[in-house]
Design goal:
2 copies of one chain form a homodimer. The first copy, chain A, is 42% helix and 19% strand. Chain A is an alpha/beta fold and 376 residues long. In chain A, the strands form 5 sheets. Chain A has a 6-stranded parallel sheet. In chain A, strands 1-2-3 form a 3-stranded antiparallel sheet. A 3-stranded antiparallel sheet of chain A has the order 7-8-9. Chain A binds chain B through residues 39-46, 48-49, 64, 68-69, 73, 76-77, 83-85, 295-296, 298, 308, 312-314, 316-317, 320-321, 323-324, 326-332, and chain B through 39-46, 48-49, 64, 68-69, 73, 76-77, 83-85, 295-296, 298, 308, 312-314, 316-317, 320-321, 323-324, 326-328, 330-332.
């Protein structure tokens, strides 16, 4: 059937995977980066420009949307995709990660999480069923189970407790998921940096049976080396025939290292958030456009980039926009960064296709770590 | 010669004029609205979208650009048009209006104005020659003379003094203007609301000889009725074969009333500034998108509008973006407003062409003042 939610592994280059995910709202080539549209907007970007940059799927945050404008209103308005004018697939997280970050404003129990809105302090309760019901109402192409994501470092006991609770919530989330052709729900593997916990988590999630599996609880302070090490023994226990999604990651070199270890999907606020603070990702590393050395710099951000920003504007102009606090500065840097991330994934896919992933990795990282050339 | 700065009056419908202005950087059909790009950016808009909306000429502010990044840097970077990526004509004001608004931070003498930068308090001096030299360096298609724009109300004596000083500055500005094929410089008629002063001002400016004539010192608090009355006796004394530019005006009904009285060019921050505060201009009047009545409003801002915002997004979504303080809200409303102003001028030009300006005015104003329809 055309509309079935289905992942097809097309080819592999060692552990790096080239895949194709079919959904109700279109096909996605993996590995893929998902721009983050937290409150139903990819910050400081026109959605048509996100799409023109090659985005195949975007993410929205359940926590933000349940508070404002609320899932009831979004359902009334046709779901979050229609609401924001996005025709391609969209993934929602469970709301759990943001709520866990609320600190004193939240209380975790076995049934779910009680928390206070960061907007007005009003009280909310989120259970696996409620989170899933909300995501059903938002009409997300891909929903995520509610899980408990603990900080790093955490004791083995604490890691085990949270992993087991996440498994209970996985089952309840799965039961609440409304099956629709071409829609999917992902379970989330937890267990911090412990191989045995990650293994149990994967196996039990597979027993429940999800349409894809995410890796949670990483990029929370453990560092790249430990993240890569954890990925090595985690992806190993994940199904080959389902998409694997590393949540909230990351920097360009994180993405490359994770693809190398068998990850298919990513999301991160870094390209848009950095864009708003004046940091650009380029093939020669990051550039802080606010730096005075760019005052008369006629070069584009990145000579190797074909984005709207690099094709039309000098670093001198972008520097001026940031100094003058013009919104256009945020708009142009966010656009460049999103384009950079999407093209990176495109290049990664091509390198896997031609079994040249290692070569691509070496070439990219060497150039990326060489640093920006000084203006002569 | 192709590149000569030249205004051609194509036809008239009573006092409303249809014209064509040839410049070094392209032709402009008048009457025209010029979006304002204060610091070399039309705020919260991609310039390609300003152009796609039909903008034929934009304005930049000399005061802002001389302070940051400075005319020396902009000249080094190829002029303000190249700096910001705009290939069509661009007009710069003289810097005078912003400086006059600085209040205690400035001191006017016969030679020019001493003022302190609002950015860092450093001292500057602007004379007619310096203002013109800066505009030469910015490479503006159209430059403006330095004038003294006084507030309203002002005594007859004060109005006369400022008008005469503006005439002295007109001559000095004209002498400092660097002649280039297809570039032009406009004189500015002053004299507050006094017919005899406006007449003297016009005649003396014509004696000096400019490529176009602006009307300054209006829309400074005198109200629409008095502005229209002043226009009636001011345009009357202005050359038929040169463009007439009413500076800093205005609301949609101001533009229509001024065209009716023989004005050809306008600029105003209203469409972009209003866009950033949640006010949209529509064919049924203004709409405050932050109003709670739009929470579930599936309609576009304006059923009669073909802009990107109206074709793709509901009022409910725009309302949400403003409530969530998403930059995209400012971007989409600014875009709609700029498009609305540009289409208004397009419709005005068509109505003059078909000698139906009065009919257009009546139809537009009746609908515009009818007010937004309530959601049923």
């Amino acid at each position: 059937m055309n509309n079935k939610f289905n992942f097809k592994l097309i080819s592999q280059d060692k552990n790096a995977r080239l895949g194709n995910l079919t959904t109700a709202h279109g096909e996605i080539e993996t590995p893929i980066f998902m721009p983050v549209g937290t409150a139903a907007s990819v910050k400081a970007m026109h959605l048509k420009d996100v799409e023109a940059s090659g985005a195949q799927i975007i993410l929205a945050n359940t926590y933000h949307l349940m508070l404002r404008p609320g899932q009831k209103n979004i359902k009334e308005l046709g779901g979050v995709r229609k609401f924001m004018g996005w025709n391609k697939p969209l993934l929602t997280d469970s709301g759990g990660f943001q709520i866990m970050s609320l600190g004193k404003l939240r209380k975790i129990e076995n049934d779910g999480v009680t928390f206070k809105s960061h907007l007005d302090g009003s009280k909310y309760f989120l259970s696996p069923k409620i989170s899933t019901d909300i995501q059903n109402a938002l009409d997300a192409t891909i929903s995520m189970q509610l899980d408990e994501c603990i900080p790093f470092p955490a004791s083995y006991e604490e890691s085990e407790r949270a992993m087991k609770l996440s498994l209970e919530w996985a089952l309840k989330s799965r039961e609440a998921f409304k099956e629709r052709d071409g829609y999917g729900q992902f379970g989330i593997v937890q267990g911090s940096i412990h191989a045995d916990l990650r293994k149990v988590s994967s196996q039990k999630l597979i027993d429940i049976g999800f349409d894809g599996y995410a890796i949670g609880g990483l990029a929370v302070g453990e560092g790249q080396e430990l993240m890569f090490k954890t990925l090595d023994f985690t992806t190993n226990n994940m199904p080959v025939d389902k998409p694997r999604y590393l949540m909230g990651v990351g920097k360009p070199d994180d993405l490359i290292g994770a693809v190398k270890r068998g990850v298919d999907m990513f999301d991160c606020v870094l390209p848009t958030r950095s864009g708003r603070t004046g940091q650009a990702f380029t093939s020669m590393g990051t550039v802080n456009i606010k730096n005075a050395r760019h005052i008369l710099d006629k070069r584009p951000l990145d000579n190797n980039c074909n984005c709207h920003t690099c094709k039309n504007f000098s670093r001198a102009y972008l520097h001026h926009l940031f100094k003058a606090q013009e919104i256009l500065g945020l708009m142009l840097l966010s656009w460049h960064n999103i384009y950079f991330y999407i093209k990176l994934m495109e290049n990664i896919r091509n390198s896997i296709k031609f079994k040249e992933f290692d070569k691509f990795e070496n070439t990219f990282l060497e150039q990326y770590h060489s640093g920006d050339i000084e203006l002569i």
